[in-house]
Amino acid sequence: MRRLTVIATAVLVALLPACTVERPPAESGGWDDTGEVTYWMWDANQLPAYQQCATDFEASNPDIDIAIEQVGWDYYWGRMLTSFVANSAPDVFVNHTSKYGDYTSRGLIEPLDELIARDGPDLSQFVEGTGDLWVGDDGKRYGLPKDFDAVGLFYNATMAQDAGITPEQMQNLTWNPQDGGTYEDVLARLSVDVNGVRGDEPGFDPRNVATYGLGITYPPGGGSGQTQWSFLTATLGWSHTEKPLWGTRFNYDDPRFQDTIAWWRSLIDKGYMPPVEQAVGNEPSQLMQAGRVALVTEGSWNISTFAKLGGIELATAPTPIGPRGFRAAMTNSLADSIAAGSPNKGAAWKWVRYLASPECQSVVAQGGVVVPAVASVVPVAEAAIGAQGLDITPFTRHLREGTAFPFPAAHHAADVDSIMEAATERVMGGSADVSSLTAANEEVNALFTQG
Amino acid sequence: MVTVDTAVAPTSSTPGQEAGGLTPGRVLAWACLIAIIAITLFPFYWMLRTALSNGTTLATAGTSWLPVDFTWGAFRRVLGLATLEEAQAEGGTGSAVDFWVYLRNSVLVASLITAGQVFFGALAAYAFARMRWPGRDAVFFVLLTALMVPPIFTQLPNFLLMRDLGLINTYAALVLPFFFMTPFAVFFLRQFFLGISREIEEAARLDGAGHVRTFFQLIVPMSWGPITTLALLQYVQAWNEYFWPLLVGSERSVRTLTVALGVFRSQTPQGSLDWPGLMAATLIAALPVLLLFIAFGRKIVDSIGFSGIK
Amino acid sequence: MTTTAVPAAGAPASGAPAVARPVGRNRETWVALGFILPSVFGFVVFYLWPSVRGFGLSLTDYQFFSDTSFVGLANYQRLLGDETFWNAMLVTVWYVVLNIGFQTVLAILLAVLLHRLTRSVVIRGLVLAPYLVANVVVALLWFWMLDAQIGIVNQILSWFGIGPISFFGSESWAIPTIAFVNTWRHLGYTALLIFAGLVMIPRTLYEAGRVDGASEWQMFWRITMPLLRPVLALVLVITVVGSFQVFDTVAVTTMGGPADASRVIQYYIFDLAFERLDYGYASAVSVVLLVILSVIAFVQLRLMRANESDLA
């Protein structure tokens, strides 16, 4: 036995030089104009519309086949990286602002500047701001925007009516980090304990609540706080980084940010929001349906999910007005990127251009799920979505009123998220004070100084 | 003391024949058994109840004991019988599920893996348990170390190997790493072969049978119980394998059922899950294995009797 | 295997004092080698080689899409100071203790109940039912049933005035819950393995015991347990090593949360390798896990003397 171990060790040592790591062959891909273009997307709700786009596209481009593969969001990015490693990546895929930095820095996706200069489209056709999100920190453009989203409120209209809250009140909520403004008044009014006492009435029992005013998701926010707190901090003039896109210094140590989180945390103690640990594993839409929460802050991309919910009467409202007199909402845009290793980038580019064209986007608009980034078809989408029963203008008004701000694209996004997720979770769970976010901020910023 | 007892005796004592019949101890024992079975089965009822509910109204009565808003829609969705509009109206997704393709892939992959593992495992187990050759125990121990290798550790190098061989998204990639050996099969069968009395083997030897014949004509038939049990266990394991198929076989043409169940996971960021669809798919995916068990179950549990044991 | 064996005259019975003719012994060696060849091939190609490759990678900073260089033991040094790693080890051990404790006791109990109470194949089949459902789905199902706000289990508990309990959401409950979920799935499987060992015990022993006036309880401790040892050893080695590798359940439920309370080692490795593409470091963590598992399994086998059978 001992001899065997010795031999095995010797063999191992001898083999070591043999297992120097091979790099995946650097692929430059090819520029074929024909063949099959594989296209990945994650949102099943949008699949039918894009399937229609593919059919229309194939009709006018008979020598190109579009094969759409839908992969759920939970798996999408893991499988994407794996497929790049396996040299079986899709030719074109739907990309996300928070992720594409990982792909540009590794040279996995194709810059589009020269192609756009040669073939168009005219970038002015897009809703303002959506195109800029797709310019990487190297100044190159990596995607054509196709839709945009914003954040707003979904609330249970029946509960609001029972609480004596009018739709007008809901459309003009105010907020500040000290007393929470009329936003907090509404949340308190909507909270009902097991004895039927409301949150703003004496004798309310915050430990035994039947319906919470505000829902919370798990994990509570991560680095961007997109649907959780970003629309509040922005009304105080706070921003995530020192510049809107590709910043390298985060501001989680700013008192404006920490005051907002402290206020948010106080809702749990007051019984207006469930403890964070109870949010693990359930979805806002389920809790709304079950009558456990009366109001949630959510992204416009979920509007069709909420519109489909049976058994409850919902309505939408814009985010509250902050102490400086304006609203704010984070807006994000999805775009289609081309894999640098694709053998038929010519065909892929044709498809990407078609996806961002008014022809395809008006099909998407009629699908009633998302709002296209092509400005001319926005009204069509608003009408199609409205026809399903929920008004999307509380979300889209931010674009018209100039109160939207972009998703903070930055490098190390995954690490920033995991640090801030853990830190926010500790604060919201009550095991750490808000001031601990300063230390988390140092940890985040160290990612950028260490190269 | 050898008793060659080839009579097929009942393998366990029949209840009721013990002295005393219904003693308090037996009542307690039955109560334990019933409790375990109840906890085992309740989630299955919950799966069925959910699978027969309507996804859009499910959460309105999350704790109702009966299906919410009864519908066969989830099963129709999974089997690809529902139109897109029908599916979406009940909280399903727009993604198509090629159920029959996935079923074929699962059956093919699990069958190949099981056949390879059991056959090669039995051969090796016999060599380790009943034959004498230099270095036997050392080799066995080395093979056993494979048991300690965390799958995650070998998965990536194996993934790179499959990539380099150009096998990604082929059946070969799904089957090969499990086909030739699983330490569990070797270990399991060896433990049983060890228990077979030597005298029987020696009798065969005296009749002039070599090792190969002894193995195929004596040992295999005698160990049919453990071999079938192992085959069933490994089949289920291969059937439910998740991570590896996800890594190397995510393409539609070779996708297995387990991987396909992933389609029902969260479809949109912070979106909702099609619970009825997921549960219907789960039940349907478990069905083939369940049928297999019903078909072979009696054989397994009845034949784990060893004749010829001291 | 197409060798037709020529009867080896007077091949020694293994176990008998070997007065072997060298030819017979040689033959046996060759046949044995033929028998183990496929397994050895599988072992070398799919276990040994990847492990060696993995070990090699652990000495580099391999990250897939960037240049790779040899960094010696730097990954191992980093590991020593990595709090997340040590926490993951602790969490994993806690999980193993709970899971194996629950599972082994319950499985022995269940196997004995099945063995002594009923011959119904239906009941034996029912017990195995959870094992027929994929891990991932079992995890999702319980995730939903145990939900703090709308789960059926908390509904039932509330009738008894308990709860609501955040089974997956609170730091103290997460690991016990995951251990319970996996016990639920594997109980029937483990019990079936033990059951297979039980039916190998000759009935005559129990009959003799009953004649001597021994109670079920005494027979269990004096006959069943000692004779079950080889099978129990097998089951324990398999389940302990398997339970160290808990992954699926965590991946689809808590994803390591809340606050790393369920970040088990395998999930940490997965996170490093496939989410952060830090493959060199992930390999180093795997190597350490491999060493730990080998030691544990080796000690177990030694303690249980799994190599011997009391029946042979």
TrEMBL record, chain A:
InterPro entries associated with the record: Bact_solute-bd_prot1, SBP
Gene Ontology, cellular component aspect: cell envelope
Pfam families: SBP_bac_8 (PF13416)
Location, primary (coarse class): other
Subcellular location: Cell envelope
The UniProt record lists the keyword Transmembrane: no
Transport found in the keyword field: yes
Record key words, sorted: Signal, Transport
CDD domains: PBP2_TMBP_like
Family: Belongs to the bacterial solute-binding protein 1 family.
Name the UniProt record assigns to this protein: Carbohydrate ABC transporter substrate-binding protein (CUT1 family)
UniProtKB/TrEMBL annotation, chain B:
Keywords: Cell membrane, Membrane, Transmembrane, Transmembrane helix, Transport
PROSITE patterns named in the record: ABC_TM1
CDD domains, A to Z: TM_PBP2
GO terms for cellular component: plasma membrane
Membrane topology: Multi-pass membrane protein
Ranges where the record places region Disordered: 1-20
Gene Ontology BP annotations: transmembrane transport
Pfam families registered for this protein in UniProt: BPD_transp_1
Transmembrane segments: 27-48, 107-129, 138-156, 168-189, 215-236, 275-296
Location(s) in or outside the cell: Cell membrane
Family: Belongs to the binding-protein-dependent transport system permease family.
Entry protein name: Carbohydrate ABC transporter membrane protein 2 (CUT1 family)
UniProtKB/TrEMBL annotation, chain C:
Keyword Coiled coil assigned: no
Stretches that traverse the bilayer: 30-49, 93-115, 121-144, 156-175, 187-206, 227-247, 279-299
Membrane-protein topology: Multi-pass membrane protein
Alphabetical list of Pfam families matching this protein: BPD_transp_1
GO biological process: transmembrane transport
Superkingdom of source: Bacteria
Keywords from the UniProt entry: Cell membrane, Membrane, Transmembrane, Transmembrane helix, Transport
CDD domains associated with the record: TM_PBP2
Domain ABC transmembrane type-1: from-to ranges: 89-300
Primary localization class, coarse: membrane
A GO-annotated cellular component: plasma membrane
Localization per record: Cell membrane
Family of this protein: Belongs to the binding-protein-dependent transport system permease family.
Name of this protein: Carbohydrate ABC transporter membrane protein 1 (CUT1 family)
The organism of origin for this protein: Pseudonocardia cypriaca
